[in-house]
Amino acid sequence: MTLIYPSSKALEIVQPFRGQLFKAAIVNAALQCPHCYGIKSPSYAICRGCEALDDVTFGRAPSWYGTMVDYSTPLYWQFNNYKKFTAATQPQLLVVTALLSLAGWTHANAIAKALGGDPTAVCPVPSSRGTPVSAQRLSSAIQKCGLMKDHFAEVLRANPAIVRAKRTVQPEYFEPTKSLRGQRIVLIEDLTASGSTAFSAWVAVKRAGADAVILTVARGVNPSFPGASSVIEQLPEPGWTKYFAPSAQQG
Q: Is residue 170 part of a domain?
């Protein structure tokens, strides 16, 4: 998965934020939830948030993250504000697009392996605010990424008859826009905390007969939460670009 412009451009765009990029990985198994990479008690297998979702299939959704984002950083501000502007060249959207592209590069092989082949469709997780997929700013980001653009499709939409309940597994909130049987789908989320919305979309897609994975641009971390510093590891400087897949260095 590549950007329309050279992937080196993506690294250039996020370079000013390199000190705010953290490894989206298990860096402390005792204190980190294996499902969402969030904070958990050493005596529990998963975090309270994942446990509260209380769904037998939770944890089986293949999920990857591009980076971890500290809620107190300027980088988080980019995620919090990119939806508020409409200009295609606005800097907040460019940062999110660049990080999405790099996340795609980093996890492309794992995604294809999990799906049993290259994706046939890439769709943002529909907004819990009811914004149509075509109007979501994340759709603009996806359509600036090469293979993601080629496979962009609105495969899900929010069901207007259902009220979204926060932090719950609610697949009935989403409905397929067409037959999805046999499709290999990548669901894209921009920023997540509990992951319940993305997981609800994943369950909806699976129930429709498709294979699916979740690719999240960033996982939010609250720095004031006890133990937060133990689950985030800053990328090395110099050499921070080596965190991303070697193919991301090409172009």
A: yes
Each residue's pLDDT tens digit in the chain (251 positions)? Answer: 444 444 678 888 999 998 888 888 888 899 988 888 888 889 998 887 787 775 555 556 788 888 888 888 999 988 888 888 766 568 889 999 999 988 988 888 899 999 999 999 999 999 877 788 988 999 999 998 877 888 999 999 999 899 888 878 889 999 999 999 999 999 999 998 778 889 899 999 999 999 999 999 998 888 778 878 888 888 887 778 888 765 544 44
- Does 76 reside within a domain? yes
Residue 159: both structure tokens together? 């069901």
Q: Give the three-class secondary structure for 119.
A: coil
Range of the domain at 145: 60-227
Amino acid at 183: Q
Distance CA 204, CA 46 (A): 23
Burial readout 158-180 (b: 16 or more C-beta within 10 A, e: otherwise): bbeeeebeeebbbbebbbbeeeb
Q: Is residue 114 part of a domain?
A: yes
Query: What is the Cα–Cα distance from 132 to 121, expressed in whole angstroms?
Result: 17
**Assigned domain for 44 exists:** no
For residues 99 and 78, what is the distance between their CA atoms, to the nearest angstrom? 11
CA distances from 21 to 73, 110, 151, 204, 232 (A): 10, 21, 28, 31, 9
In order, the DSSP letters of 134-203 are GG-HHHHHHTTBHHHHHHB---EEE-TTSPPPTTS--GGGEEESS--TT-EEEEEEEEESS-HHHHHHHH
The tally of CA atoms less than 13 A away on the side-chain side of residue 85 is: 15
Overall domain count for the chain: 1
